[in-house]
Amino acid sequence: MASTFAGLSITSRGLNAAQVGLTVTTNNMSNIDTDGYSRQVVSQTSIGPAAVYSSSLVGAGVEVTSVDRVRSFRLDQKYWQTNSAASELEAQSYYLESIEEVFGSTSTSDITTDLNTFATDLETLATDPTNESTRATVLADAETFCETLNSAADELSQIRSDINSDVYTTVEQINSYAEQIAALNKQISVATASDASTNDLEDQQDLLVDELSGLIGIGVTETDKGEYTITVDGVALVSGDDANELECYTVTDATSDQYGMYGIRWAESGEDFDTGDSGALNGYLAVRDGNSSENKGVVYYSNQLDEFARTFAEAFNEGVTSGTTTYNGHADGVGIDDTTDIRFFTYDDLSSEELMASGTDMDEIYSNITAANISVSKDIQEDTDKIATASSDGEEGNSENIDDIISICSDVNVSGNATITDLYNVIVATVAGDSGSAKNAYERKSANATYIDTSRSSVSGVSSDEETVNLTVYQSAYAASASMASAWNEVYDTILAMVDD
C-alpha cells in the first residue's frame, strides 16, 4: 500500500526534476556563443519502491542523478593531434613566405634587377672604356648591387631574430597553459571528492588544452578524477596539480646551428627539451635553424645567398674556365692608370690587398665574403680609373678584359652548368617551391582540423532548436507536475475534512 502522502512526494520530485531541466536548458541557451562551452544534459531515473519487501505497487517518482556535459574525448584527442600538425605548418608557411618575399621572383627580384643593371653598365663601358662618367655609373650600380645583397642578408637575419622571439614567447605561453591546467586539475579533484559539479571547470580545461595543442604536440590522458595528464614526447608536462616548467637559454656552442639563439630545456632537470614532431614551436624551430636540403630554413637560405655572393665575387675578380675557354677576371685586367691585380669586390670595404691578405689560399680568402658584408673594394671606390677594362698595359681603348667580365656576369657557367643568374634563380625557385608546399599543406591540414572541430561542435555544441524543444518539454513537465500538486491538494483537503467529521 502506498504512503498517504506518496502522491505529494512524487509530485515534488517531478517539479524539482522539471525545474532542474529548465535551469540547465536556460544555462545552455545563455552560453550558446561561449567559446569552449559544452552542452549540458539532465540525467534522471525513476525511483522504485522503498524496499524490495515493500507492499507498494508503484515507485516514488523521479530523481535527478546528475547534470552531465556532452563531450567526446576521442574527438578531442583527434582535434588536438590535428591542430598541432596544422599549427606547425602554419608557422612554417608564414615565415617561408617572408623568406620568399626577401628573394622575390625570377623576374622582379631586386638582386636580379641590380645585377642586370650592373651588367648593362659594363657593356656601356666596353664601348668607351675611358669615359669617366660611365665608370662612375659602374661604381654606383655595383655599390647598389652590394647594398641590395647586404639588405637581403639583414632581412633574413631579422626574420630569424623574429622567429627567435616567437620561440621565447611560445615557451612562456606553454608554461602558462600548463600551470593553468594543473590548477584546474586540483580544483576538479577537490570538486569531484565533494560531489560538486565540475562541468564548467572541465570546459575551461579543454579550452586550455585546445590552445596548448596549437603550440606543441601533446599526448593527453584522463584520470578517473577528471584530471588531465599531459605529456610531450613521453615526458610529463602536466601531472595532477604539478606543471613541469620549461625555460629558454642562449646557445653558446659556436658549432651549433642554434648558436646565439634560444635553446629550450626543462627548468627542473636542465635536460634539453624535445619539441616532438608538431606544434607551432616545432615549426618555428624548423624554419629558424633549418640548414639542410631536407629541412630548409633561414640558415639554409642565408647560406645559399652567401654562396651566391662569394661565387659571383670570386668569378668576377679571378675569372673562370668554362669548358675549354678561360675568361679573365678583373684581377687579370689593366686599369686606365695601368694598375693591375686589383680585385673589384671585397668585403667590409677592404682594399684588394687587404682581401688577399685575409687567407692563405683562394678558398679561405673568399670564404670571408658573405651577402651581409660584400662590398666594392676600397681601391675602386677611391679611383674608378682602376676598373680593369683592358687586357694590356698602355691600351686605354682596349676592352678585351671587360668583355670577358661581361660574359662572366651574363652567360658563362661559373659553377657547374649554371650562370650567375641561374644560381640565383635556383634559390628563388627553391624557396618559392618550399613556401608554396608549406602553404598548401597547411591549408589541407587546417581544413582537416576544422572538420574535426565541427564534428566536436555537433556533439558538444548548443543547438538553439534543440534547446527550444527541451524548454517546451520541461515547461510541460513542470506544468503537469504543478497540476498534479493541485489535484493532490484537493485529495488531502477531502481526507482531512473526513477526519474532522
Automatic annotation (TrEMBL):
It is found in: Bacterial flagellum; Secreted. One of its GO terms (biological process) is bacterial-type flagellum assembly. InterPro entries: Flag_bb_rod_N (IPR001444), Flagellar_basal_body_rod_CS (IPR019776), Flg_bb/hook_C_dom (IPR010930), FlgK (IPR002371), FlgK_helical (IPR053927). Keywords: Bacterial flagellum, Cell projection, Cilium, Flagellum, Secreted. Residues 458-497 form the Flagellar basal-body/hook protein C-terminal domain. The keyword Secreted applies. Residues 96-330 form the Flagellar hook-associated protein FlgK helical domain. One of its GO terms (cellular component) is extracellular region. Belongs to the flagella basal body rod proteins family. This is Flagellar hook-associated protein 1. It comes from Sporomusa malonica. The gene is flgK.
